[in-house]
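Because discrete structure vocabularies remain unfamiliar, we turn briefly to a single example record, giving the amino acid sequence and backbone structure tokens:
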Amino acid sequence: MAVTKRMNDMMIRGSVDASRTGATNAPAIQTKTKSLLKHSPQTKLSTNLSSQEDRRKKEQSEKDVNIAELNKNDRVNKWLILELIGKGAFGCVYKVGYHGERYALKFDLGCCAEKPLLIEKNVLELARKAKSKHICRLIDHGNYFGFEYIVMTLVGKSLRDILIERKRKKLSAGCVISVGLQCVEAIEELHRVGFIHRDIKPSNFATGRNDLSHGVRKIFLIDFGLSYHYIDSNDQIKQMKRSIGFKGTLRYAALGCHRRSPPGRRDDLESWMYQQIEFTKGYLPWKNLEDELAVMNVKEAVRTNDGMQKLLKSCPKKYMEIMKYICKLKHTARPDYDLIYKLLRKILFEARLQEYPYDWEYESLRYFRKK
């Protein structure tokens, strides 16, 4: 009320002065009046209420969007939703389209303090710069109603899905060695850009797609949410000063992970070796164990000569050399990937195994035609 009365008095005085002098001070009076209105308590209150309402509407709209249950033909910015591929505790993945091409769009649900999607984005950016062959290409990244997402190459079935579909739960001799070679190549590519995967397993390797030039014979390493950047800004191995929790999947985790040792490149190769044995035999000795300590005890036992012979029974003899080499590595050591490639190729040559066609090629043709 006091402000309003003061403005009225000013306007009256201005009018009287103008009539006396024959000139007008209206612009100056209007400017001063606007300034008083701008700083008046009523105006400030109105502005605050308006901004609070805008924030409330934005927060409400974000709550109304269930990011894990988007419908077909919904749009995430320019990306057209085609179908939900899968979802978990921390994120979900959709098949999306843009200008007739298909891609994978992954959302971060914001439930994890470690921000796995940001880690994955960093890995994909570095892999793209390094021109990696076995890591998906990062296409786009953005934000949709407060949820971060990345868009990348759409791959085919995971190796786990392929194993589940096979009656004997294993791959043929030539296929398993050829696939093993590609998996090690993928792991080496990841290590070259400064990351350790920490969750190597069949569900984190996938085939390519028939509608792409490389087809279903190409193996991709996917899902880098648990990956660890093991080198510092000076390209030196990081020295971890604190104990870390269990990272990975119980069945395939390296022994060092069970012991809560600092992660190393050898751990990814040890997990790959367990996967390779499972592909060859159809099972691992601890597959039915659910207690971490029990699994760790079995993995320690197979490092003895007798235990390793039992583990590798009915596997190619070169597996023993590879396994012993991996077990001897220090966690800071750079693995000799070429040695592993050489031993795997010796298996192919000595047993006269045929790499192609892969076991799933004809099934994949039918699968993609349905899509």
Remarks:
- Strands lie at 75-76, 79-87, 91-98, 101-108, 138-144, 147-153, 195-196, 205-207, 219-221, 228-229.
- The longest strand covers residues 79-87.
- The chain is about 45% helix and 15% strand.
